[in-house]
Amino acid sequence: MVELLLLVGVLVAMFVGYNIGGSTTGPAFGPAVGAGAVSKSTAAALMTTFFFVGAWTIGRRVVDTLGSDLVTAPGVFTLETSIGVLFFIGLALFVGNVFGVPASTSMTAVGAIAGLGVANDALDWEVMGGIVIWWVVAPVIGFWVSLIIGRYFYARLDGLLAMDESDGAVLDIDWSEGVVPSVSIHEDASRREVVGVAAVIAIGCLMAFSSGTSNIANAIAPLVGAGALEMNPGILIGGLAVGIGSFTIARRTLETMGSDITELPLTAAIVVATISAALVVFLSFIGIPASFVVIATMSIVGLGWGRATRPITVSDAVRGETGETPPVSVHALAADGDGETAPPIGEEDPADIPTPGELFDPATTARVVVMQNVVPLISTLGAFVTFRYAPFF
Predict the structure, then answer these.
(1) What does the pLDDT average to over 304-317?
(2) CA distance linking residue 59 with residue 210, whole number of Å
(3) What is the pLDDT of residue 342?
(4) Mapped to the 3 state alphabet, what secondary structure does the chain carry?
(5) pLDDT, averaged across the chain
(6) Among 203, 266, 316, 328, which residue has the least CB neighbours within 10 Å?
(7) Using an 8 Å Cβ cutoff, are 298 and 142 in contact?
(8) Is the four-CA dihedral 155, 156, 157, 162 of positive or negative sign?
């Protein structure tokens, strides 16, 4: 009976890992895919590799923390309750992936474990409170930093980088020679474009590594905490499941984060990825499960809003003399990429600046924000009701 339950637990953990791959690949490599820097298959391969490295090196510490610190009472994590927690994590993430929305795996997993803790009066509210505070603060920081960059620095940054995108792929990748591909620079790609592509890919790899350090715990921490699964086999199983999810269901979340919310030019992709990666690494460093999805989404919105407000001075905005920005092409986001000096704030021609609705699709953004709250709520309420009232727990 125990062996059968363990098999069920491993299968459910793999289901969670599968959905983690679908949820986290979009935030990590969505900007790179949206900018045409890498293909979806290449993004999946990079995600799988660097996720595993992060999980194997640092992730085991987070597994110990999530499996013991958040729920304090001994004996709460049993094999049966671990399966129940993993089931609600996987179910909630699957709902988000079906809608093409990369929901936060950390919020979903912590919510399910918190539901278990509250149902058994074993939740450490001090630890939970610290996590929630950073979940609120980090996206706000990402939004405002991106907005400031978009309003005051993006035009000069884009002019400095001058990364005019060429037709077709920047890198030619040939898989015909075996497992290790042959990579060469496309003949139409400029040197600065290659540097930009390398930067945004490197940042995506960093985010994948950081995802491995925190999100591997979401798949295996309940089983490891219950003593039903050893750490190393658990990391191998979780990493394999994440890879499967990255190559399959993540294609929808890559489209959402890379093109449906906004058509990101290369400079914008680098800005969003840099801010998101920096915040995620910081949160992982202080032991907070990081929400890649929320931070990346708010960074995209903040950057777009900052770019759209360049024609308006602060004094005009205070007096209400903002006027209306006429509709223009979305490609105006990269309009300063010709290397020319950007005009001062308030003196830029509104016709050269896109509106917020053209920098990010409001309907898609609203759908993402709603589902990012609904998915963790599903796991939290589902776990609480089950562990409080189900007679078999």
Answers:
(1) 65
(2) 9
(3) 53
(4) CHHHHHHHHHHHHHHHHHHHHHHHHHHHHHHHHHCCCCCHHHHHHHHHHHHHHHHHHHHHHHHHHHHHCCECCCCCCCHHHHHHHHHHHHHHHHHHHHCCCCCCHHHHHHHHHHHHHHHCCCECHHHHHHHHHHHHHHHHHHHHHHHHHHHHHHHHHHHHHCCCCCCCCCEEEECCCCCCCEEEECCCCCHHHHHHHHHHHHHHHHHHHHHHHHHHHHHHHHHHHCCCCCHHHHHHHHHHHHHHHHHCCHHHHHHHHHHHCCCCCHHHHHHHHHHHHHHHHHHHHCCCCCCHHHHHHHHHHHHHHHHHCCCCCHHHHHHCCCCCCCCCCHHHHHCCCCCCCCCCCCCCCHHHCCCHHHHCCHHHHHHHHHHHHHHHHHHHHHHHHHHHHCCCC
(5) 76
(6) 316
(7) yes
(8) positive
DSSP for 67-82 reads HHTSB-STT---HHHH
In the structure, what pLDDT confidence band is assigned to residue 329 with cuts at 50, 70 and 90? very low
Q: Which amino acid is at 230?
A: E
Specify which of 249-263, 333-347, 368-382 reaches the highest per-range mean pLDDT: 368-382
pLDDT higher than 50, residue 317: no
Q: Which of 79-88, 153-162, 266-275, 351-360 has the highest mean pLDDT?
A: 79-88
Tell me which of 136 and 162 has the higher pLDDT: 136
The CA distance from 142 to 271, in Å, is 11
